[in-house]
Design a protein that fits this description.
Shape: globular
Radius of gyration: 23 Å
Oligomer: single chain
Helix content: 25-40%
């Protein structure tokens, strides 16, 4: 997975069957699906893979418990099926996570107990574990940090967990291995049209400023919250398809929420689900659902969102969390389908939406990480029809993602050549210097942020320590990227400014 090698195809390939715009979950899944069907496929991403929403999730592979309450059984069943597919296809990046729902009345115990038993039944053969109704004593034993005041009991159920941006990187690598061309930092700037139909994409390499005119039979817009921007690039009069909202997550030390079980509060004051989920030695707490007007690659947490989560976590926990206890706060934007009537974005359906413009532009949006594969399959089905390509069956359902054995082998080779690279970049974390070199050589990491935010997750786990190790990371990667000391200093300064947004002031 070498960026220079991938760029060569942009200069030599005269015609593509499908060009995918967007390097998040859905775009990468679409590129993999198209390549598996034998179509000549190119994916371009304006920044880094999973730079936006796809690296900022709650890290859950789930069917969506609360969609049952909305009566959307179809969506839940589909998501549970896709949950099973993802855990099967990427076992090294996913795991089974037990959850406890604490309940504070016998009515809640009955209501949520029956609902979660039904949730498990819907998963059929793909069940991750049997749902169990717990007594008050059992609930306290399973959730040592729960506030037992008015507690009646709890319900134990199981869902999936994963590392979102790591999965995105391995989707990119798998797509390339299956024949796709995949390039980050390559931004679509316009469309080439013939008789009103899109026949090509204009783009620019953001790093070299080289411009390309790429011809294709079909274009898939999989840009998530940036969908409207690409749609209007095709037709500036087109109405908005996406109504974005943002959700924040706070990351705290595991000592504040002990045990291996996650906690799920089904309904907070604003109707949201609140999670406290163990992840990579920390605990992620979230999330909110706030409608926004301005879309950014680095959205900022609002004060009321931070206060909301701290207040609710302290309501249900025994240890009081202060602002100074937050390691990192990260914000993700949801590409929700535009609704005609106004109301809470928490109530907008997470089902995905596919549309085909008169120009032939195929737009796929909505959905969530768990259902990315199904979204991709729908996009490729439509793209192959638009492009009049030979009909091929989707086989992504049974396609393994990534190759952990190959990755470990290459990292060991890096260490063998330079034994000092076995050292950790910080004593509190397992990330090694060899991991950093591997990210540059084999995963298209082009800057300090790519590494500390997405190839390893240090920015999300502990923003202050990420700032501390940024100079070391810049120094390690500079020779491999053929950069000088001025570049190193600029990188450290840029990353420090970025990471400051992940630190809560107190």
């Amino acid at each position: 997975m070498n960026r220079s090698d991938q760029l060569k195809s942009l200069a030599t390939q005269k015609q593509w069957d499908i060009i995918v715009i967007g390097g998040g979950a859905t775009g990468l899944g679409t590129a993999l699906d198209a390549a598996l069907r034998g179509y000549t496929t190119l994916l371009i991403e304006g920044f880094d893979f999973a730079k936006g929403t796809s690296s900022r999730s709650t890290k859950l592979v789930h069917g969506g418990v609360r969609y049952l309450e909305q009566g959307n059984i179809k969506l839940v069943r589909e998501a549970l099926r896709e949950r099973g597919n993802l855990l099967k296809n990427a076992p090294h990046l996913t795991s089974i996570q037990p959850f406890i729902v604490p309940v504070f009345s016998y009515w809640e115990k009955l209501f949520y107990g029956l609902g979660l038993i039904f949730y498990d039944l819907l998963s059929g053969k793909l069940t991750l574990g049997k749902t169990k109704i717990l007594s008050k004593k059992e609930t306290i034993s399973q959730l040592p940090s729960i506030n037992s005041k008015n507690l009646v009991g709890g319900i134990l159920y199981y869902d999936g967990q994963f590392d979102d941006s790591r999965l995105a990187i391995e989707l990119a690598a798998t797509a390339i291995k299956k024949g796709a061309t995949v390039v980050n930092y390559c931004k679509a700037t316009g469309f080439i049209k013939t008789n009103g139909k899109i026949t090509g994409v204009e783009c620019i390499d953001q790093l070299s400023q080289t411009k390309y005119s790429l011809f294709t039979k079909a274009v898939v817009n999989a840009t998530g919250v940036f969908t409207n921007e690409v749609v209007q690039m095709d037709d500036h009069l087109k109405h908005h398809l996406v109504s974005p909202s943002q959700g924040i997550h706070l990351v705290i030390e595991a000592s504040f929420f002990e045990g291996n079980n996650a906690m799920m509060i089904p309904k907070t004051e604003d109707g949201r689900v609140l999670f406290a989920v163990p992840w990579q030695g920390k605990v992620i707490v979230g999330t909110t659902d706030t409608p926004i007007e301005q879309i950014s690659y680095e959205p900022k947490a609002l004060e009321e969102e931070i206060s909301f989560i701290i207040k609710h976590l302290n309501k249900y926990g025994t240890r009081v969390i202060q602002r100074s206890d937050i390691n990192s706060v990260y914000v993700g934007l949801r590409p929700l389908i535009q609704q005609k009537r106004k109301g809470s974005t928490a109530l907008i359906s997470r089902e995905h939406h596919l549309s085909v413009a008169p120009s032939g532009l195929i737009t796929i949006t909505g959905g969530k990480w768990t259902t990315y594969r199904k979204m991709a399959a729908d996009a490729v089905d439509n793209a192959s029809f638009i492009a009049k390509l030979p009909k091929q069956k989707c086989i992504s359902q049974n396609t393994p993602i990534g190759d952990e054995v190959e990755r470990e082998k290459r990292i060991n080779e890096i260490i063998k050549k330079e034994p000092s690279l076995i050292e950790a970049i910080h004593p509190n974390y397992a990330y090694t210097k060899a991991d950093i070199v591997y990210a540059v050589q084999y995963e298209m990491a082009m800057c300090v942020e790519d590494i500390l935010a997405r190839r390893c997750r240090l920015l999300f786990l502990d923003a202050k320590i990420a700032i501390q190790v940024a100079p070391l990371v810049a120094n390690i990667i500079a020779p491999y990227l053929q950069k000088d000391k001025i570049w190193e200093a600029t990188e450290v300064a840029n990353f420090t400014t970025l990471a400051a947004q992940y630190i809560i002031k107190y």
